[in-house]
Every structure is written in structure tokens, then in C-alpha cells.
């Protein structure tokens, strides 16, 4: 089913090939062949597949944490570095050749235009009412998801729900974010009843669980905690479960029939491939180390006894910093001396400190300048025959997030009962961590700190950390200043023993102001549409 769905995306993609990926691309395209497209159920299904084509950006999902305090994007041309260090400005985004083109293009009106086109024409297709309602619900979700992302990144954006003429597209005004939020919640509520209550991991289509989970996410972000809890409980009752292994959850060989995945972006090798493993991997494996986790994130993982490393009783050893830690650290981050499986199946120790080695941190030859790499999504490189051409699916919404959302909403409402601990402990126990110590985490403030940290370590490099910083308004506390990688040292090639010999590796110095909670609109778009206004501070 998955292969057929992805190939349908490819078959219909030419229909939408005229779409430009500009911030305000919302013009109808004359190349749309309406007369031939809507004559059968098969055509309508192909058109739906075309709407799914590129509906989410894997690049944004994994690299958005470099706009936050979890990671560093070492290649400026990928576009995320200027957002992370606070140097972005309207003239740096939006056009060919600009350094932040990729980050900027992560979300545009391309998918929204496709959705509006589909919704304007689906009534022409000779299909039964139930199938039509299901298709409409899927498209409404995709449009709502796009508006969710753009409203988070830009705040106020033009709310376009119909196809516009070229002239109309040049006189658009930004709708208040409150109106965008209201629209998203309404669309998701309307879509949910017409979507199936089934696990998503099989074919990539939107389900009721995805609609309600996204609705709960947005309600959490906007402080609508009561409705958030209601939607979380509805998803919890649908039968999703945590996958037994946190590490294997992200492996390609275990991605089918995964009861934790509520929504994923799906891929097929060669035909519709995902190059994430190549982006994340070591130079010695054939990758180019695009993402560098920060020491600050590494320090957020507790000891395996449940105590933070700052607790004098935790047992943390500064000379052996990765020993006896939360197992999610080793599953998420490749650190010096860690053993890993190369694409050919051989085991080796990661050594970023050997000047003669291809992973030497200072060579900047597709190696990590911070001596850390992202291991999530690539725990075993022998899963892939080609690192830049894989069928690895990428989870967009997981059941673990729903549990953390449910817990946080209850904590914020002061409704702290056993279910709050159940939500958090289910995730901790799956990871191999102990249950929450209620003697330590019995107050609202302490539980708030715990659930926030759990979100950080559980969901690292899944594209949500910046949104958490944004909604908690903690940017001034966590973003400015110099960011670091691992400490200089040596790695024994036989045993993997990491011996610290020097100071932490300095990556960059960051600035942060309140304006950085939102991204700037590209100046090129404002020049085209005189009714567009810029975000404050830019």
C-alpha cells in the first residue's frame, strides 16, 4: 500500500510542477488539467497523492533544533545557521542564492495552493459521499498543518482558502495569528470525524488520531489546556502504544506496523527517497555531518538513576561523562568513543580526535566540529544500502508526544493526579529510566520542569524544540552566548575509551532578542506585495 501511494505522488507531481515555492505562491496554475483529472475515482486518488507530494519538510524536522538550543547547523548554505545565531534579517531569505533559502523554503504556500485547488474541484469527481468526505478531510488536515507551521514561524500570515488570481496574490494582507489558530482548530475538528481511527504507519494517509493530536498540540501551545486534555484523551483511547524500544522506533526495518507512530512522512528508496541518513552520518561512513548536537543538550539527559547530572548525589563522573546516563542519550547522540555499526556491518568506535582519521573534528571535511553527531534515525547504518537514497520514514507525530502533552496540560491546570505520573513514567520506563520520584517532583513547579526536560530529551531533533522555547518564552535564558560541543580528548581505537585532555570545542556565539521568536518575512515578498508588513524588530 505504501509503495502504491508514493508512486501515485510521483505520477501526479507533474500536474503541480508549475508551482513556485515562494512565500506567497497562491496563484492558480493554467497547467492544471481539470477536464481530464476529475473523471474517475482513480483520478481523484491520484490528485490527492499530488497534494501529499512534499507536504512536510524532513530538512525542517531534523534541522529546526539547530534554530534552538539543541543543535548547530554547520553548513551556512543550508539556511538554518543564521536563525540559530540570531543574525537573520529579511534580506537574507527568500531568493535563489541566499544563504537561508533551504530553511525559508521549508514552508510556503505551495501545499496550500494544491489543497485549495483540490477542494475547489473534488465535487466534480464521480465518487461516493463517504470517500469524498474522507479525501476532503485529509486535504483539510494538510492545509491546517501548513498553516500551523507558518503561523508558528511567522506569526500573522495571509489566510488563503481559495484560489487567487495573479492580481489578488499581490494585494494580500496578513491575518492575525489568532484568526489562523481559530481556522486551524476549526478545520481539524471538522476533519476528524471523516478520518479513519486506524494506525497510520502503514500507508502515510491522515487519520483521526493525527487530526486530534495536532489539534491538542496547538491547544497546548495556545494555553487552551482543557480542550487539549480532551483531545489527548480521545487519542489515548484509540489504542496507540509506545514502541518497546526507543532506539528501534527510528529504524527503517521496524517502521511498518509501528503502533507509536500517529503520522509519518513516508519514503520509498529510489522512487521517493529520503537522504537523512547521509546528512547525519560520519564522514567515515560516507555522510556529511550536517547537524551537530550541543553540549547543553547532552547535559540535559539525566543519570540512569533519575537524577540530573547537577545533583551531587547523581554519581556523574566528569572524567567519564557518558557512563550510566539516560539510555536516550546514546540512542540520540553519537559521542566520542561510542561504538556504532558502519554501512558494511562492521563495528567501530567513533573517533573525532584522530588527526589522521576522516572524522577529525578540525578538518571540516564533512566531519563534526563539535565532535557530536545525531544518531537518532541512524542507529545502525547497515540498515541502508545507500545513505542518500533510503526508504526511511520520518515520524511527524508520535504517541509519546501526546502523553507529554496530556501531562503538561494537566500540570498547567493544576490537575496533578496519578495520570500525570502515568503519562511521564510510561515514556521514562520505555527508555529504561526509573519512575518519577514523587518526593522530588510533587509540586507544580518541579513537575513543570520535569515535563519540559522530558520533552527536550524525548523529542530531540523532531522539529519541536524551537516551538517549545517560543511558547515558554525562555529564549533569553537558553539561546544567547557561546555554544559548545564535546571536550577535546583522545579515543582508544581498540576499546573506545574517551580520555578528556582539553576544553570544550567552541562552535559559535549566539545573540537572541524578542524578535527572534518569529522569523522575518522575506524582503523580496514585501517588495512584491506592498500590503505585507514586516515582523517587529526586523
In short:
It contains 21 helices and 10 strands. The chain has helices at 2-13, 34-37, 41-52, 58-63, 81-84, 101-104, 110-121, 129-154, 166-169, 177-191, 208-221, 225-236, 276-280, 295-300, 327-332, 399-413, 418-431, 444-458, 465-472, 475-478, 523-528, and strands spanning 71-73, 261-265, 291-293, 333-334, 339-341, 347-349, 373-374, 394-398, 481-491, 498-510.
Considering the chains and any ligands shown, give keywords for the structure:
538 residues; two-stranded antiparallel ribbon; globular; disordered N terminus
**Alpha carbon gap, first and last residue:** 47 Å
Shape: globular
- What structural class is derived from the secondary structure elements? mainly alpha
Continuous helix count: 21
Rg, alpha carbons: 23 Å
Low-confidence stretches: 1-21, 25-32
* Overall helicity: 25-40%
Strand content: 5-15%
Q: What is the topology?
A:
Layout: H1 2-13, H2 34-37, H3 41-52, H4 58-63, E1 71-73, H5 81-84, H6 101-104, H7 110-121, H8 129-154, H9 166-169, H10 177-191, H11 208-221, H12 225-236, E2 261-265, H13 276-280, E3 291-293, H14 295-300, H15 327-332, E4 333-334, E5 339-341, E6 347-349, E7 373-374, E8 394-398, H16 399-413, H17 418-431, H18 444-458, H19 465-472, H20 475-478, E9 481-491, E10 498-510, H21 523-528
Helix pairs in contact: 1-3, 3-7, 7-8, 8-10, 10-11, 11-12, 11-16, 12-16, 16-17, 16-18
Amino acid at each position: 500500500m505504501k509503495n502504491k501511494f508514493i508512486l501515485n505522488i510521483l505520477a501526479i507531481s507533474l500536474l503541480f510542477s508549475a508551482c513556485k515555492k515562494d512565500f506567497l505562491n497562491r496563484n492558480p496554475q493554467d497547467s492544471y488539467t481539470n477536464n481530464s483529472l476529475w473523471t474517475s475515482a482513480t483520478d481523484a486518488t491520484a490528485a490527492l497523492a499530488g497534494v501529499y507530494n512534499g507536504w512536510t519538510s524532513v530538512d525542517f524536522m531534523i534541522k529546526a533544533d539547530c534554530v534552538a538550543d539543541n543543535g548547530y547547523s554547520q553548513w551556512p548554505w543550508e539556511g538554518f545557521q543564521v536563525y540559530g545565531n540570531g543574525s537573520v534579517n529579511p534580506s537574507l531569505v527568500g531568493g535563489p542564492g541566499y544563504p537561508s533559502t533551504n530553511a525559508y523554503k521549508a514552508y510556503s504556500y505551495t501545499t496550500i495552493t494544491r489543497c485549495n485547488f483540490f477542494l475547489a474541484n473534488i465535487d466534480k469527481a464521480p465518487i461516493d459521499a463517504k470517500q469524498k468526505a474522507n479525501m476532503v478531510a485529509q486535504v483539510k488536515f494538510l492545509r491546517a498543518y501548513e498553516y500551523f507551521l507558518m503561523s508558528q514561524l511567522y506569526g500573522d500570515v495571509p489566510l488563503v482558502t481559495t484560489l487567487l488570481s495573479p492580481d489578488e496574490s499581490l494585494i494580500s494582507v496578513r491575518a492575525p495569528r489568532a484568526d489562523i489558530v481559530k481556522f486551524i482548530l476549526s478545520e481539524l475538528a471538522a476533519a476528524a470525524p471523516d478520518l479513519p481511527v486506524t494506525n497510520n504507519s502503514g500507508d502515510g494517509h491522515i487519520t483521526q488520531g493525527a487530526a486530534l493530536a495536532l489539534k491538542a498540540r496547538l491547544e497546548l501551545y495556545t494555553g487552551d489546556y482543557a480542550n487539549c486534555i480532551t483531545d489527548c484523551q480521545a487519542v489515548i483511547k484509540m489504542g496507540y502504544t509506545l514502541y518497546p524500544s526507543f532506539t528501534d522506533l527510528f529504524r527503517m526495518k521496524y517502521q511498518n506496523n509501528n503502533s507509536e507512530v500517529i503520522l509519518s512522512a513516508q519514503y520509498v528508496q529510489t522512487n521517493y527517497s529520503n537522504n537523512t541518513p547521509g546528512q547525519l552520518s560520519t564522514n567515515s561512513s560516507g555522510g556529511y555531518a550536517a547537524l551537530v548536537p550541543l553540549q547543553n543538550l547532552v547535559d540535559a539527559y539525566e543519570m540512569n538513576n533519575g537524577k540530573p547530572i547537577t545533583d551531587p548525589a547523581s554519581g556523574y563522573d566528569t572524567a567519564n561523562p557518558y557512563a550510566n546516563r539516560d539510555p536516550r542519550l546514546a540512542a540520540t547522540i553519537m559521542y566520542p568513543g561510542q561504538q556504532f555499526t558502519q554501512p558494511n556491518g562492521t563495528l567501530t568506535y567513533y573517533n573525532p580526535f584522530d588527526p589522521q582519521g576522516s572524522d577529525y573534528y578540525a578538518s571540516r571535511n564533512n566531519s563534526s566540529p563539535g565532535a557530536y553527531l545525531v544518531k537518532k534515525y541512524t542507529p545502525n547504518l547497515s540498515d541502508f544500502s545507500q545513505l542518500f537514497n533510503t526508504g526511511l520514514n520520518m515520524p511527524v507525530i508520535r504517541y509519546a508526544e501526546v502523553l507529554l502533552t496530556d501531562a503538561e496540560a494537566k500540570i498547567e491546570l493544576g490537575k496533578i493526579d496519578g495520570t500525570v505520573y502515568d503519562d511521564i513514567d510510561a515514556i521514562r520506563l520505555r527508555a529504561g529510566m526509573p519512575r518519577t520520584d514523587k518526593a522530588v517532583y510533587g509540586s507544580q513547579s518541579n513537575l513543570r520542569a520535569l515535563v519540559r526536560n522530558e520533552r527536550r530529551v524525548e523529542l530531540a531533533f523532531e522539529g519541536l524544540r524551537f516551538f517549545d522555547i517560543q511558547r515558554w518564552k525562555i529564549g533569553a535564558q537558553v539561546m544567547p552566548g557561546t555554544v559548545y560541543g564535546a571536550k577535546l580528548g583522545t579515543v582508544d581505537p581498540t576499546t573506545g575509551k574517551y580520555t578528556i585532555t582539553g576544553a570544550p570545542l567552541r562552535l559559535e556565539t549566539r545573540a537572541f532578542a524578542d524578535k527572534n521568536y518569529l522569523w522575518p518575512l522575506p524582503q523580496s515578498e514585501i517588495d512584491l506585495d506592498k500590503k505585507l508588513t514586516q515582523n517587529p524588530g526586523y
